[in-house]
């Protein structure tokens, strides 16, 4: 997920937050009263700061919020902030020292990392085992969301095993091919889709794989070959970058081969990622390696062009390589929910807040915050729901999903499923057993903060040049030497120091 460009104003706010936070927190700890209190009848009061991606906030008297308060016995004060200015507001709030009880954090920004390290938020790791839902947090995702190996927030879960292979099912059937399961079978399908007239129009106007300048699909396919997900351990337990492994070079040789044989579009290195679906939908390309849920979007786009074009799209897991079935995960989360120490001062209050967050993961609460109320935001139809189109009714629930964590899984109500949508869910669930974690994910590198884009560009440019035949293996190793000299060696050294301290 890309971050917006940072202006001078935002830089100043980040610096302000970083410089003032320790002082302000120390000052306010003795003066500020706890935000977490008891309302009439013993109801807990909680203030929550969260982003709004909609034009309007839900009204204070929203029936959905009233139902939330009734079910949880918590008096909820929602502080909505427009998503476009959320980071600015977050940094201003940090600098003030007067933090709400609960805050949504959109990412591991420098200001959040500094705030966590200097004691602004509770470290939750030791407490999570005591809560039925929170105790089921996924180990890989928890590690990915951590800072210095510590859990400062409850992650907002997203599909961890999200990647997959979208494929033209009708082309497979036309050519009498089975769905590919191994890298060799995958290559044979790409070759047949390019050379054997899969659409039956008598022309050689198709090709196998469509790719763009987005690097994700190449990263994912490298993992099929056994390359690490960004960082891997060597025989001594030290971390090495993926491009320093022989498996990485095996993957590059394969990419070079399919490019030289015309099995992937020649313009991938300059194609905008937004154009990626076009060749697939238009019947030029037969395979996409990307997020599995692309399959349902491709299916929908094809049906919009031709409502009779059913059953043309399928989605598959990763291809089996030398080390078995392996898939590159997403980070598995989109931001997290943190608990401030200035708002929630005591361990007793912390446990109340954690009980509230744990309850939000119950199916009834997930459905409430994600779908709304039956008869207002949706009607039931068998096992599925039909959402309302009434904008006024939808306003009462829009944005409340920002405090959903989906732990241990998404239990919101479902709209009626198409066969492709069902298959996507099956693939993503099965992928959780084969994803390869990045052991360097929780490590916060100062070198990377300064030189990361430059270092990444050196390797990404060399990879493209190797695939299209502009450099050979020696040329790629020359680029790796440049990477090392440009800060890579320093980066590897720092990452391993952090990794050793974490272990």
Polypeptide structure, described:
With 503 residues, the protein is an alpha+beta fold. It folds into three domains: 8-159 and 332-413, 3-Layer(aba) Sandwich (D-Maltodextrin-Binding Protein, domain 2), CATH 3.40.190; 163-328 and 420-439, Periplasmic binding protein-like II (D-Maltodextrin-Binding Protein, domain 2, 3-Layer(aba) Sandwich); 445-503. It is 42% helix and 14% strand. Strands 1, 2, 3, 4, 5 and 12 form a six-stranded mixed β-sheet that branches. It has a four-stranded mixed β-sheet with strand order 7-10-6-11. Helix 1 runs parallel beside helix 4 and helix 8 (216-224) packs across helix 9. The longest helix is centred in the C-terminal third of the chain and has 30 residues, at 473-502.
Q: Which radius of gyration do the C-alpha atoms yield?
A: 25 Å
Here the CATH topology of the largest domain equals: D-Maltodextrin-Binding Protein, domain 2
Strand fraction = 5-15%
Cα distance spanning the termini: 29 Å
CATH class of the largest domain: Alpha Beta
Q: Quote the average pLDDT.
A: 91
Q: How many domains make up the coordinates?
A: 3
What is the overall silhouette?
globular
Helix content: 40-55%
Biggest sheet layout? 6 strands, mixed
Number of strands: 14
CATH superfamily of the largest domain: Periplasmic binding protein-like II
How many helix segments?
A: 17
CATH architecture descriptor text of the largest domain? 3-Layer(aba) Sandwich
Low-confidence segments: 1-34
Signal peptide: 1-26
Pfam families: SBP_bac_1
InterPro entries: Bact_solute-bd_prot1 (IPR050490), SBP (IPR006059)
Protein name: Aldouronate transport system substrate-binding protein
């Amino acid at each position: 997920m890309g971050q917006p460009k940072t202006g001078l104003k935002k830089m100043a706010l980040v610096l302000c937050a970083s410089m003032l936070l320790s002082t302000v927190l120390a000052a306010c700890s003795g003066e500020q009263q706890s935000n977490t209190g008891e309302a009439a009848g013993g109801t807990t009061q909680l203030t929550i700061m969260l982003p709004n991606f909609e034009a309007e906030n839900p009204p204070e008297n929203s029936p959905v919020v009233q139902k939330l308060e009734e079910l949880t016995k918590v008096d909820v004060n929602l502080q909505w902030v427009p998503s476009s200015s959320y980071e600015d507001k977050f940094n201003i709030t940090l600098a003030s020292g007067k933090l709400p009880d609960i805050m949504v954090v959109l990412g591991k920004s420098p200001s959040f990392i500094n705030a966590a390290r200097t004691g602004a938020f509770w470290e939750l790791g030791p407490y999570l085992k005591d809560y039925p839902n929170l105790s089921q947090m996924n180990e890989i995702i928890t590690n990915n969301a951590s800072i210095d190996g510590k859990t400062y927030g409850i992650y907002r879960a997203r599909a961890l095993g999200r990647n997959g292979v979208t494929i033209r099912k009708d082309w497979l059937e036309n050519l009498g091919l089975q769905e590919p399961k191994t890298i060799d079978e995958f290559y044979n399908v790409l070759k047949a889709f390019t050379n054997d007239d899969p659409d039956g129009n008598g022309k050689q106007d198709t090709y196998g794989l469509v790719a763009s300048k987005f690097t994700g699909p190449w990263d994912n396919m490298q993992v099929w070959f056994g390359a690490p997900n960004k960082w891997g351990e060597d025989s001594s337990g030290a971390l090495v970058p993926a491009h320093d492994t022989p498996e990485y070079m095996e993957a590059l040789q394969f990419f070079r081969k399919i490019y030289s044989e015309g099995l992937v579009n020649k313009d991938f290195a300059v194609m905008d990622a937004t154009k990626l679906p076009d060749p697939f939908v238009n019947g030029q390309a037969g395979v996409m390696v990307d997020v599995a849920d692309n399959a349902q979007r491709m299916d929908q786009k094809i049906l919009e062009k031709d409502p009779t074009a059913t059953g043309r799209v399928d989605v598959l897991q990763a291809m089996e390589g030398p080390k078995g079935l392996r898939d590159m995960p997403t980070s598995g989360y989109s931001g997290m929910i943190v608990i401030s120490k200035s708002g929630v001062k005591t361990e007793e209050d912390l446990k109340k807040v954690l009980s509230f967050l744990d309850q939000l993961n119950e199916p009834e609460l997930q459905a409430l915050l994600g779908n709304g109320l039956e008869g207002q935001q949706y009607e039931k139809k068998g096992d599925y729901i039909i959402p309302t189109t009434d904008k006024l009714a939808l306003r009462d629930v829009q944005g409340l999903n920002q405090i959903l964590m989906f732990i241990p899984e998404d239990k919101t109500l479902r709209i009626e499923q198409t066969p492709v949508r069902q298959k996507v869910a099956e693939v993503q669930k099965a992928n959780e057993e084969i994803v390869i974690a990045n052991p360097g994910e929780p490590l916060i590198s100062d070198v990377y903060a300064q030189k990361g884009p430059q270092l990444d560009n050196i390797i990404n440019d060399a990879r493209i040049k190797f695939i299209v035949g502009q450099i050979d293996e020696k040329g790629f190793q020359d680029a790796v030497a440049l990477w090392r000299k440009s800060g890579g060696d320093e980066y590897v050294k720092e990452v391993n120091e952090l990794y050793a301290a974490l272990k």
